[in-house]
Amino acid sequence: MPAPLTYDALARALTDGPRAVQLRTLLAVLATLPLAWGAIASPSTGLVDGRAAGLIAIGVLAAATPLCERALPLYALVALGAFLVTGQTICLAYALFAATRTRRLDLILLLVVVPLTLALVHPQALVVQGAKGALTFSTTWVLLGFPIAVGVAVNVANEAGLLRISRETERAALRESLLRERRMQQREHLVQTIHDGVGHQVSLMSVQSMAIGARKDVPDEVKAKCDLIQAAGSDAMQSLSSVLRIMRQNEEEHHHDLPGESGSAAEIDSLVATYRQYGQSIAADVRVPDGLSPDVSALLYRAAEESLSNTVRHAQGARVTVRLAAADDAVVLEVGNAAPPAHAPSLPGTGHGQQQLAKAVRSAGGAMSAGPTEGGGYLLRVSLPR
Prior knowledge:
Blueprint: H1 7-15, H2 20-41, H3 51-64, H4 72-86, H5 89-102, H6 105-121, E1 129-130, E2 133-134, H7 137-140, H8 145-213, H9 220-248, H10 268-277, E3 281-286, H11 294-314, E4 319-327, E5 330-337, H12 353-363, E6 367-372, E7 378-385
Parallel strand pairs: 3-4
Antiparallel strand pairs: 1-2, 4-5, 5-7, 6-7
Helix pairs in contact: 1-2, 2-3, 3-4, 4-5, 5-6, 5-8, 8-9, 8-11, 10-11, 11-12
Keywords: ATP-binding, Kinase, Membrane, Nucleotide-binding, Phosphoprotein, Transferase, Transmembrane, Transmembrane helix, Two-component regulatory system
Protein name: histidine kinase
EC number: 2.7.13.3
């Protein structure tokens, strides 16, 4: 079934494809017929007397009209010359139409001034006499507003079409951007879930096996099993780090973070109690201010969980401090640890936890700093707007 003929399809057919020339020629012939009939019906006296010159000029201009889009100024000047030679007002209409399409005021003024000037200098050459009385150039001049109006209408239609295409392009780009952003968010959410879920649990499992293996009353066979568990945990963390790195390698630099399934700031005390059960020495001073938004509260919990998990991995046996309090128009969380014992074991990390946390903090309008302290310790500080 053939596709329906639309304005866009007709425009493409007139400008592109092997049949464009044939279609433009057909339109030119159809446009020439009524114009030629008008030239025959209305006698004229231009600089060259006779209808033959007028018919030839009108035919040439009509045939060139569909083809002159890229040379409108030249076409307007040629049409003006045809008007001056033949006296056919239709030629001036072609010229005014083309000049209006160019949006050049100087060319339009030229087409107005030159005929008027020549009419003053040579009035008999630019007078059209009708069959029923005087139909002079001055009276028919009013009719020349029609090609100007048509030219303006065509310009407005073209601009409207370009605006529509521009809007459709912008909407398509926006849809693509939203889809790409959504895919990035989903991938980021998956990375966060794997890191916070699997990574933390593997770390705690390894820490428990280390704690059991360090006891003096544990048989050697059990200690050997604990060593195997620790080695498997270390391998699992390295594999997890590789997987997360592959998942993130094609992501863009800036994007928003999806909130994951997390606790709230009010649950940080319970989180501290859980890590104490794994043998960490933690001093906590948690004062949750009123009026925290759910997103800020969840982000504070996530920051505390990430920091405590890192102390288990890298600072076993070190004293840990957790502080949460309001400060002016912000809420500040600080999690730090002293230097770990010299021979304390350390688990490999994924390297993604703090990166993800920093992006989430920036997206929430906050600030984060993390780094070593004097004496070999480490401090993470998160400040979020209340």
